[in-house]
Hints:
The protein is mainly alpha-helical. 49% of the residues lie in helices and 5% in strands.
Amino acid sequence: xxxxxxxxxxxxxxxxxxxxxxxxxxxxxxxxxxxxxxxxxxxxxxxxxxxxxxxxxxxxxxxxxxxxxxxxxxxxxxxxxxxxxxxxxxxxxxxxxxxxxxxxxxxxxxxxxxxxxxxxxxxxxxxxxxxxxxxxxxxxxxxxxxxxx
Length: 149
């Protein structure tokens, strides 16, 4: 990004960043370095080399074994928090799917559907069963008696 308020083609730095207009209606939400991440990188002659727009994403944590989540969610259902458990089943299984750990996602959904149905929560159980089938299709798991339990 070139500093248009100064003469010449000078790259903008934290020290040469133009003052923020108080009457602009905009609020300064980030520091100068944040805005400069989208700025241009320059070679020694002041020519633009490339645009640096990407910010490193934080590394995601390692997913625990499915059985740990199944046990925690079973306790939530047994406490009577059916809706909360339903949302947790859906979000946790989605994390496993995004990590391409389909079989563990299927284990979580199968367990959730059975537990919800055992507690009389038909709508919740059926919703998890439908998600189970969706993941079977997405993962291209062959349909047989062993997989359908």
